[in-house]
């Protein structure tokens, strides 16, 4: 018996098929079954030639620029599944179709690739799914120590959650930082976008500039949003109304980096907020009424030199200028 272990799409099936092809003649009877888990409802032998001559059908001679080919390879990032699916789809298509496909992939992952990668995610317990989505949307490339501090403050069991995600090959730890494959990150982001494709106010997490601006400008009450992490490439003024965040009834995590409030007035924060980072903040901050749950506060380089009123509840991490 041989066991192959790794994230969805990394090439376990391809390797198993290669081994099967090499040894099946030594047995009186043999059959290759793939995607057992995905087809467990109606389990049938699937005799597909996975490594067919690894995808480009026929001998059509269509010239494709090296740049476009390299873009597809960068998107696949070494996943045999991605190469197989994209190769089969792009076969026989001309450069405009390649360019259009790459533009679409930049917005939303390929469904067939996504469905395979999502198998590992679907098998997670709810708490581990939440941790995975936070990392995919916000914290890829951040230190393990920082991620654990932030998510522990939001009442997640982060240490065991990260270990489970590593075991499932959804994330990896490299030089004390948490990383994940680009396609797995896109898969996680797509799960959140699927919560409501039309209106970001009904999604659990916001991280895109335009989505955050849309929600802040709508000034509507919502119970869907759990976390906002907006990191801009350079300082930018954004209008944030005094009650913009208090209308987000379940907001637990709020991080605003390179965000300057264009109106430096009083901003109310929801009482359920647990982790809050806003360096360079120039506004006056105050909690709304209710029991305060804040655990972590980082306001380095802000104009505030000491904790504002109501910020002294359960805090274990307070950072100022």
TrEMBL record:
The keyword Repeat applies. Residues 129-194 form the Disease resistance protein Roq1-like winged-helix domain. Keywords: Repeat. GO terms for biological process: defense response. One of its GO terms (molecular function) is ADP binding. Transmembrane segments: none annotated. This is Disease resistance protein Roq1-like winged-helix domain-containing protein. It comes from Eucalyptus grandis (Flooded gum). The lineage of its organism: Eukaryota, Viridiplantae, Streptophyta, Embryophyta, Tracheophyta.
